[in-house]
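Q&A FORM
Asked by: J.P.
Topic: structure of DUF2336 domain-containing protein

PROVIDED:
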Amino acid sequence: MRDLETTMLRGSTDDRAQILSRLTDLFLSTASVMDDDQVGIFDVVIGRLSRAIELRARIELSERLAPVPNAPTGVVRQLALDEIAVARPVLVASKRLTDQDLVAISAAKGRDHMLAITERSDLGEPVTDFLILRGGRVVTHAIAANHTARFSEHGMGVLVMRAVQDDALQMALGARGDIPAELAHQLMVAAKNSARRRLTAGLQPDLAGAVDGAVERGAQAVAAQAQIQGDLGAVNAALVEINRLNEAGELNEARIVAFATAGSTEHAICAVAVLAQLGLPATEQIILGSDRDAVLLVARGLGWSWETAAALIGLRKDFGKSAPAVERARQHFRNLAQPTAQRVLGFLRMRDAQQ
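REPLIED BY: S.T.
REPLY: Here is the structure written out as C-alpha cells.
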C-alpha cells in the first residue's frame, strides 16, 4: 500500500503498470479463498490504478480478470465501459456483469460493445430484448445465431417479423430450436415467400405487358441482353484466370488488393467469391451493394487487413467512398471482432447455399 501511494503520487506510467501487474498477480493467486470484503479491497486498489495506466496494460488486465468468477466487480464494470479493445474480454466472458450491467453498457457504448455481448453464453431476456431493439441488423444477426441466448416472446416475435424481409435472419432463426410453434409457422411462410421471390426474379417482366410499346420494349430487351452477354463474357474470362491462380496456389489476399487497386472489378469479385466460398451474385452484392458493413464483415471474417477492405471499398461507384465514410468504415473494421465476423460469414454461406 505504501508503494501504491508513492507510485500514484510520483511514479511514471510504467511504474503504475508494474504495481498493477503485481497486485493482479497477488489477487489471482489467492482469489479462490478470498471473501467478499477481501475482494473489495482489491476492487478499490486495482480500480484506482487501472484509471492511470495505458491502453495495453488495461487490455491485459481485462484479459486476466475476465475468466475469474469473483473478480472485483467495480473494476470489471470499469473495464467494460472502456474502449472496445479493453472491454471485449470482460464483455464476452466475465460472470460479474449482470443483465442490468449489460443493458446499461449497451446503451452507453453502442454497436461494438453490443457485438461483444452477443458472444456471451446464456444471455438473459432483458439483454436480448434490448439488443434486438437497439442493435441494428448486424447485432440482430449475431444475437440470433447465439443458441444459448434466451428470448422473450416479444423479442422472438420481433425477430420473426424482421426475418420476413431478411433471408440471412431466416437462416439464423431456422437453425434454432426454441421458436414457439406459431412463430415457427410465420417463419416458414416468410421462407417460402423469399424462395418465391428468388425464383421469379429471373423471369422476363414484359411477357404479360400491354401491346403498346412492344417494339420499344423489344429493342430495349435486345440491348440489355447484349449488355448481359458482354458482362458474362468478362466475368467468365475473369473466373477462368482466378480458378487457374487458385489451382496453382497463387490466389491470396495480395492478389485481391492488386485486382481492386487496378480497378479490375470482375477479377476482384471472382477472387473474393472463391476465397470466401460464396457465389458470384452474393459476392457482387457484398462488394458493390448498399450495405457498407458487408465487405467489412467478410474481410474481417477471412482475417484480411484493413488495406484489403479499403481496396474493395474503392471498387464502388459512388456509395460509401467519401473520406468520412471510409474513416467510419476503418473504425468499424478495427473494432469488429473476428469471431463475430466469421459467424456472420457463415450465415452468408448458408444463405447462398440455399439460393
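FOLLOW-UP: The radius of gyration is 26 Å.
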